[in-house]
Amino acid sequence: MNIRRALATAVAAAVTAPVVMLSAGSAFADAQPPSQTQQKKPTVAELEKAAAAAKKAYEEALAAEESAKQAVAAATSDSSPLHVKAKAADKEAGAATAAKAVADKALSDAQFILDKLPADATAADRAAAQKALAEAKKDAEAAAAVEKTAVEKSKAAAEEAKDAEVAAFKALHTASEAVRTTRASKESADQALADAKKAAENPSCEPGSLLVSSVLTGLPSQLAAGTSAEFSLRITNGTDKAIARLRPFTYVWAADKGNHKVAPGLLHLQWSTAKSGGWKDVDSLHRAGVVENLAAGAHADVKLRLKLDAKTPAGQGFAFVAALNGEKPCDGSQPPLDKYPFEILAAGTKPGTQGKSTPDSKPQGGTSTTPVNTTSSGQLAATGSSSATPQLALAGGAALVVGAGAVAAVRRRRTDG
């Protein structure tokens, strides 16, 4: 199973996973398990309609992007109306500047002639020189006004052409983003449809075919580095038939206050049952023993102990739990994992009295009227492994409440040599 398929399976499981609520009792309390429910999945016809709509939106976005590219080409072309207008205005401004230079030269010459008149110049010559100066001054002032108007017009035309180019590029960026978004939506819709069609061909492998809940009780809301806490994981068979073998899945994840993942070696998770002979470390696949022969409506409890190394940085932690069928890959509870948050305090800090951690997840759909028996008749095996046991692999990450990562889980089969 590749990563894309794994993530698609996790998405499908999110729709069909059983509802799990946290029991409000203290650690290891015999609390009433919740009722189970499954949310109705969209039909193949509905997914085909959604895929068609996503395809249409993508095609329209592509067309809009092409139009935006053409608009950019037009806006940046020298032959565009705004660029032609700007060039004409610039040419007009240049002519006005040249005319002003001529007028200024004439004014300077007229002033020079007046200043160089000899002292014995006749009154008529002096009057003529003064008149020429006045007319040259008037012409220079008019030329300056024309130049000012032409330069302002040229500047405005150039800015108008530039603004049009900027607007065209912005529109292209928006269109390209729409293409990226609609492409992703189309791919998701196509994948969901393909998965639904495959599931329809093999209904027995639909996620959530068994209603099995995994509920954590007694996990403190705060834990200080260098300390430990004991709590309980209850696996409940909410179906009408016995389950031969289940694997309790437990996983602890944490990040410091800078949203950096805490090294797994600082978080020590163990499990224990009456038959385990003491505390055992969870295995490399985060499994806490084996539940065997769990009758319909029954439950089995596993004690858990979390130890935080004294070097564990303060931050946010999450405990994830689930149940996997020990033999068949299509049975057992499905992702998403139920997660329970807890705050990690610095070493030496005394935890407050905020009570127990509650599930940081919400049920899918409504509630069921099917009761769940609170009497446990399941047997919890201490050790053991199957020659063909399903594994839970981490397939993706999602942002958590503190901006750190989380886990999406899917199962795969392993065949021992």
Written description of the protein model:
With 417 residues, the chain is α+β, with helices and mostly antiparallel strands. 39% of the residues lie in helices and 22% in strands. The protein is built from four helices and 13 strands. Strands 2-10-9-4-7-11 form a six-stranded mixed β-sheet, with no helix packed on it. Strands 1-3-8-5-6 form a five-stranded antiparallel β-sheet, with no helix packed on it. A two-stranded antiparallel ribbon has the order 12-13. It is elongated, with a radius of gyration of 39 Å. The N terminus and C terminus are likely disordered.
The end-to-end distance, rounded to whole angstroms, is 19 Å
Can you count the helices? Answer: 4
| Assembly state of the chains shown | single chain
Class from secondary-structure proportions: alpha+beta
Task: Report the mean per-residue pLDDT as an integer.
Answer: 76
Shape from CA axes?
elongated
Low-confidence stretches: 1-38, 203-209, 327-336, 361-417
Order of helices and strands: HHHHEEEEEEEEEEEEE
Largest beta sheet: strand ordering? 2-10-9-4-7-11
User: What is the rounded Rg?
Assistant: 39 Å
Specify the helix fraction band. 25-40%
The major sheet is characterized as:
6 strands, mixed
What percent strand?
15-25%
The beta-strand count equals: 13
